[in-house]
Backbone:
């Protein structure tokens, strides 16, 4: 039985000591080794740990993707030797590192616990000792009577948070971290209470590290008065591959032509634009409602409820895999390791672009993962109906969703048909189907979207989006 914990010290406040051990007012410097960190806290020596220290130690404001890769590779090299890992880290960028590691460390079946402190361990009122001891207990799991948590996580004060859901929210308070859109996975008091329904299951496949990162990414935050021309100029002569766009509310952005044209220009350069909210809590559901569909039409994709830290590191990770742009876009919207609550599956076809008809049928293959997920809603969008047989009458469109196997929609009470009238000045059709079409998805591998209209039309594209939540 593995009975040791590996402590990896990357730097940060927790491991700072006085440059003159006899002068409590002397400047702080990084500790030289584990002994120097623990000499005033002999209780730490009772734990069965090994210790590795990065050389040089890194101030967290100097953290970089290369160091993320070094941490991941070190864990990989020592993975079979230890029950779990504790990573000591500065607080300022801890959430970025935790998020990045969650994507790089594949098929985890051991805890990787990041922790740090607001005050150095040597100070009398420090929060460091409690953070460190509890992190060791969580990493050691069964050695200390704690349920196994096979995740990258952050422990701070009295709360264990999923790493890729965490944010630093306070620069001085001992309750320095929060998880805005996902509850704590363990609460610590007299006992360490793990909430088992909130943790990821241990992986069944073999652990490995996928230490790839491409940092050609920027984060931009919208504000009233932002000139689209300034935004465009940022992307004219550089190697930027991805943008995290922090928008208003639940993903709202200006819908004037100048702004949308700039976003379309950025997207046309092969740059991926991910929409996340500026709000601390909440979701972005791109394309669910017609207002946000204008953004999807110019190439923007949804960041759902990703934290800024998770959005940046997930995009860097996927870009580092050198995948086709459309595959990066697809994976950005699908939960990989608990980083987002809702997954969005998009299917787009332009095969009817040259067809002038009153009847269309689009078939698509249903991802097998969707049969394990809880369908929330689905959306069919017909983009740019640019020609009609008759402009004197309103356009009547009917959309039906079916599977290759016949199901009694009356018996199952499936809401699989939507009818709408489109006046002459409207070129886009937007229909929201509720969760009842889950019955069709579960019993079929092929989905059919049938479009009927009262006159012949031509269209630019059909987009079908499914919003789902993974059932644990």
Residues:
């Amino acid at each position: 039985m593995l009975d040791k914990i590996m402590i990896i010290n990357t730097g940060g406040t927790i491991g700072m000591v006085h440059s003159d051990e006899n002068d409590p007012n002397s400047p702080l410097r990084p500790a030289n080794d584990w002994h120097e960190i623990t000499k005033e806290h002999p209780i730490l020596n009772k734990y069965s740990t090994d210790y590795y220290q990065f050389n040089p130690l890194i101030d967290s404001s100097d953290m970089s993707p290369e160091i993320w890769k070094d941490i991941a590779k070190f864990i990989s090299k020592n993975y079979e030797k230890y029950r779990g890992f504790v990573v000591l880290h500065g607080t300022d960028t801890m959430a970025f590192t935790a998020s990045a590691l969650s994507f790089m460390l594949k098929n985890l079946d051991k805890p990787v616990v990041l922790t740090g402190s607001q005050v150095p361990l040597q100070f009398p009122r420090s929060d460091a000792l409690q953070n460190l001891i509890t992190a060791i207990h969580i990493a050691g799991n069964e050695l200390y009577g704690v349920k196994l948590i096979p995740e990258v996580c952050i422990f701070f004060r009295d709360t264990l948070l999923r790493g890729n859901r965490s944010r630093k929210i306070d620069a001085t308070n001992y309750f320095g971290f929060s998880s805005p859109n996902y509850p704590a996975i363990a609460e610590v008091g007299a006992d360490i209470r793990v909430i088992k329904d909130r943790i990821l299951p241990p992986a069944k496949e073999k652990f490995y590290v996928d230490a790839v990162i491409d940092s050609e990414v920027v984060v931009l935050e919208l504000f009233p008065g932002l000139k689209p021309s300034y935004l465009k100029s940022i992307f004219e002569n550089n190697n930027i591959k991805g943008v995290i766009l922090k928008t208003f509310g639940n993903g709202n952005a200006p819908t004037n032509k100048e702004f949308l044209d700039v976003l379309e220009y950025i997207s046309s350069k092969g740059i991926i634009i991910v929409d996340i909210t500026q709000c601390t809590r909440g979701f972005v559901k791109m394309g669910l409602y017609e207002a946000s569909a204008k953004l999807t039409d110019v190439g923007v994709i949804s960041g759902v409820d990703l934290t800024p830290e998770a959005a940046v590191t997930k995009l860097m990770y996927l870009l580092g895999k050198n995948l086709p742009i459309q595959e990066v876009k697809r994976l950005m919207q699908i939960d990989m390791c608990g980083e987002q609550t809702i997954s969005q599956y998009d299917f787009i076809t332009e095969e009817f672009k040259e067809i002038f008809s009153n009847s269309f049928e689009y078939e698509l293959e249903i991802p097998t993962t969707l049969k394990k997920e809880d369908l929330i809603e689905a959306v069919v969008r017909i983009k740019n109906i640019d020609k009609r047989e008759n402009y004197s009458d309103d356009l009547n469109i009917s959309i039906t969703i079916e599977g290759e196997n016949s199901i009694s929609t009356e018996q199952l009470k499936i809401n699989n048909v939507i009818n709408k009238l489109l006046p002459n000045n409207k070129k886009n059709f937007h229909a929201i189907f509720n969760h009842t079409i889950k019955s069709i998805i579960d019993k079929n591998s092929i989905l059919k979207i049938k479009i009927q209209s009262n006159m012949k039309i031509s269209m630019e594209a059909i987009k079908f989006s499914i919003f789902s939540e993974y059932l644990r």
